[in-house]
Amino acid sequence: MTPPDNRPIPRFVADSSRYGIPTGRFAARLSETFREACLGIGDLPAGTDAPEEVVWFPERAWAGRTWTPATALGTAILEEGGEPETIEFFGYVSYVQPEEGEGDPHDFRATADFTDVIAADNPDWQIDINDEVIGTWNGENGRRGDITLVWGRSLVRDAYAATAEVMEVVVDQDPLFEDRFTLIAPDALKNYGDPEFLSVRLWTQRAVELAAESLYEAAESEDEESEADRQPKPEN
User: What global pTM score does this model have?
Assistant: First the structure.
């Protein structure tokens, strides 16, 4: 017998991947939708083309939709008069996947953004990770959190599986497909005392931890860099 949990958190809310990484005609269909989203980015630098090659990650199903993340490299002139620089598009395509024999996937929707902070310029990275909030979880006593789609690549050898952890509890896991993983898990939990944030860990097949990345630390670092940019620069 187990008593009620005083600090409940949602665990394993998403279906496991059924198909892995998209291929063939379906991948082409997804790529078309993702490229359209890339061209629709509001602050996309003028003259930036849609990416040609899209890298897909394993699909996961949650809340009646299937979520398939993606990344793609491109080039853009980020400063007036500057040289073209490598950027990375990131986002996902979601769609409704009927039960087998009940029709084709439909209602395709895509979200995309871009960054000039890429793994190729950061040889110390162990995980190349992206995340996007796709929903909200509401618990008892005002507790709530962001249901977050997390996808990434292992940049270390022998990685076999990825886990999502919050409050020292594993809340999702996924085997790697060609060094890639997708997780759907709660992040930024509130009304548990201090806010609780998600961490991603990579493991070997023998359950040896290889690497860890906190979404909070990444967001905090970006905020610190933005704050530094706002500080007045000393005159020469």
Answer: 0.88
